[in-house]
Amino acid sequence: MSGTPREIQLLKYKDDGSFDLDVVALQSVLNRDDVKDLPVVLFSVAGPFRTGKSFLLNYFLRYLHSPVFKGEKGDNAKPLGEDSEPLGGFTWRGGSERNTVGLLIWSEPIIKTLENGDKVAVLLMDTQGLFDSKTTMRDCSIIFALSTLLSSVQVYNLKENLQENHLQFLQLFTQYAKAADNGEELKSFQNLLFLIRDWSYYDTHPYGSKGGDSLVAKRFEVTKDLSTDMVELRAQITSSFQKISGFLLPHPGFNVLKPQFDGRLSDLEENFKTYLLELVTLLFSPSNLVPKKINGQTIRAKELSTHFNVFLELFKSNETPTISSMTKAISDISLQTAVNDARELYENTVNSKFGVDQLSAPTEAIRFSHTQAIEAAKALYNSKKKMGSADELVARLDNLVKELDEILPQTLLMNETKVRKLNSEAQKIYADEVKKVHGENLLCLHPTDLESVHNEAVQKTVEFFDSRRQKFADFEDQARVVLIENLKKKLTDLNHENEGNTRIFISEAVLTYSKAMETLLSKEYAVEDDEFLLKHQKFSKDATDDFVSKRNQPSDYEEDEFKQTLIKKISDKFILLEKINKQHNREAFKAAYSMYEDSMNELWSGNSCCYSKGDLKGIHKRKKDIALFYFHPHKSVNDDFQKQLLSGKIDSLYKDHVETNDLRNRRAERNALNEYQRRMDDLISPKPTWALIVPWIITLAKRRSYHEDCKYYAIRYFRNERCGSSKYDEDSYYDDLIWSINRSYDTNYAL
Ligand SMILES: Nc1nc2c(ncn2[C@@H]2O[C@H](COP(=O)(O)OP(=O)(O)OP(=O)(O)O)[C@@H](O)[C@H]2O)c(=O)[nH]1
Ligand SMILES: [Mg+2]
């Protein structure tokens, strides 16, 4: 119950004037968490209308909220409140017209710890006054009966005196009491206090409890002048209540009649205030805070509404409740209470272990706990004091067990939902653990590392599962077993994913390698085979290193099937590329050789062209260098076997050219010598003029100069045949020519 404390109407009135219990309103007071399980001490004030009941209850409230009641005695403790404070609480007013209607309960139970440490919930109930002109006797009786049946202390509020008719009004309930006592001599009702207001015969019976008790004793005294009915009435009343007492209050003073009277303490007579304090002190003394019992069972707050309802329905359905109907009602309540307690025990046990807020648990453990909780509930039910036939007791228990058995599937279903949620959270933990390793990159690991990652993720996931799961040593956790099995299977998926990604990286590495190698092939000159191999080794290592570095955990394992696959693919690629390169080399070789060959052949384009040996050698050297350069520009002959081959082959071709040149030089020599001899012959051959001896002699004398001239022409002829440089210093062919000419002169022309 929240909000400002206030009175709560417990009866819902219908248009025809009849009424029901407002269960919701009552439960709003009784089912408060800190109250529902406490024994109830209910003080109810009932009696004729306009007798100051509500007014008195408000002073009860003041006392119950005072430091005195709470045990905090101090100098300023004012057990009845402030002097000038208007009296609030239950609605009260002056005048002659009835005020309170129905049954009212104070919304805020007062929790009090008793001397033995037990806590009780103290409740105050106000009732509609009896005997007003508007209410039927039956309704008055029902209200009074409910008040008496449900209260721990029934204050029977009477004005001026305790009269016979007041006792007779109690007779009805004494009959109920008989019905409810179940033959076990339990007094059905608890304390009855006859409270006489405006008592004026204080000289006969003094004010307060002493006079009250003596008045009650006097009224209950069995004297000769009492009729049999009156004697029986007294016997019934005394046998129905566990304690009967009395209290006499003086008149509060005539201020209470004034219209402006607001209930303040200062307007009340001192005497009244004195006895009012005595009354509340006595009434709420620890010994009088008696928990409500029905049929020997202490009633807890949450159970009170059941009793309320059953009694109300009973009174409404019968003109006058019979003993058997009363017995039946009380037995029903006792059975219902036992069933409720047993059900509650089961629910509390099961909820505390498997409720919405609890962790999921193995199914077998739930089944076992359910069976145990049912046994405990049955034991509690059997231990409870109950009324009813043996068959009825068994039937109620059977029904309860059936009802509790129906809870099991719901508990299991709820548990399943929790398990599903837990499983999906666990799967996420596994996925997150794996994700931690590769982040936003593709998963790519050495299979050994992958297995470690998987095992670690499984371990973390199972730890997570265990931390959110109830453990029962006696039961195997099937859900845990299934989870672990499913997690283990994930390694296969992980392997597939890893393999797929690894193959992508392998392809990339092969591509990088191929691009690097193909760049070599695309160059304008061929790459020497060894060089090509060296490059292959370098690029192959780069590609392999790069591939390993792409792994989420680059680690070096001797056994590495993926690395081996990569190396194999690169090797295969290399074999192809090497073939191409070799082909390039062959072509380059051919081209270089042809380049030399063609350019050397051009030397002989003139018909008679010839060279000095030195020139030819120089030309050969230049052309050979060019050819060799174009073959493998970056390799020296010494470092390049193929270049050595090319060089050898060129040198061998050069020999042919040396031969050709030799032949040509020899021919040029011969022709030049012929030229010399032709000219000499022509000069020295006999002429007609030689008839004259002198000219002939002269001719003879001139032979040397002829020789020199003809030699000059012969040399000029030879030089004309020559290509290349015009140096003849170290020219064996030239030297040979000079020698041949000189020899020819000496042999043929000199005298
Ligand atoms: N004579 C007298 N009047 C009192 C006493 N206590 C209170 N009153 C006055 O009685 C009047 C009625 O008080 P309520 O508390 O409303 O009386 P009630 O019994 O609840 O009346 P209903 O609800 O109509 O049954 C008020 O004017 C009170 O001041 C008392 O002890 N003696
Ligand atoms: Mg009233």
UniProtKB/TrEMBL annotation:
Keyword Metal-binding recorded: no
UniProt xrefs under PROSITE patterns: G_GB1_RHD3 (PS51715)
Domain annotation GB1/RHD3-type G: ranges: 37-288
Keywords, sorted A to Z: GTP-binding, Hydrolase, Nucleotide-binding
Any GO molecular function: GTPase activity
Pfam family, one: GBP
Gene3D superfamilies in alphabetical order: AHSP (1.20.58.420), P-loop containing nucleotide triphosphate hydrolases (3.40.50.300)
Family stated for the protein in its record: Belongs to the TRAFAC class dynamin-like GTPase superfamily. GB1/RHD3 GTPase family.
Protein name as annotated: Atlastin-like
Native source organism of the sequence: Bombyx mandarina (Wild silk moth)
